[in-house]
Amino acid sequence: MGILSRFKDIMNANMNVLLHKAENPEKTIDEYMRSLSSDLGKVKAETASVAADERRAKRMLDECADEIRKMERYAEKSVEAGNDSEALKFLDRKAVQTEKLGELQTAYDQAAEKAAKMKQMHEKLAADIGQLEARHAELKGKMADAKAQQAQNDRNSSAGGVSAAFDAMEEKASLALNEAMALAELRAGKKEDDLDDLIAQLEKDQNYQVTTEDELAAMKARMDKKD
Q1: What single DSSP character describes residue 23?
Q2: Which of 7, 58, 111, 220 has the highest count of CB atoms within 10 angstroms of its CB?
Q3: Residue 185 has what pLDDT?
Q4: Which domains does the chain carry?
């Protein structure tokens, strides 16, 4: 059987060593799982045939052993009946069956060995596939965590950029506000200066108004004198 020729390779395969040396563990797991699944499929397909061979070999072996015991009993009965010639015939047939028994025993041993190997391979392959599936799930989980972390990092980076932009805008706004306040203060100061000038002007106007009234009074006085 082709699968049995790979028995040693399959049984000696060390999954942990293989994965440890792999540059891409996930890809290696996928490839190895496909290979193991293929082997497991062959094992399952051939197990029935091997088991049937073992059962057939065991049945033939048991039948031969029963025939040997039967020939021996017949020989003993022939001896008891005093018929030695018949007893010799049964013993000859017993000898033939005994020789055949050796061949059948060898055939059965081989069939049993094949069946045992098939069982060992099936258990090994099933165990390896189970470990690979667990490792594969672990890798997927780690990759998902890594992607989630990367996405979080990207979001943090984006948020950091937005925050920096807002900080820059806030700084510009603060500068603009400071400039506006400074300008307002300057304008306020100018208004104060204008107010002083206005008061001075009013005072001047008042003085001018008083002088004109005086002049008018003097004029009236002069006119009254002329009359």
Answers
A1: S
A2: 111
A3: 62
A4: 2-169 (1.10.287)
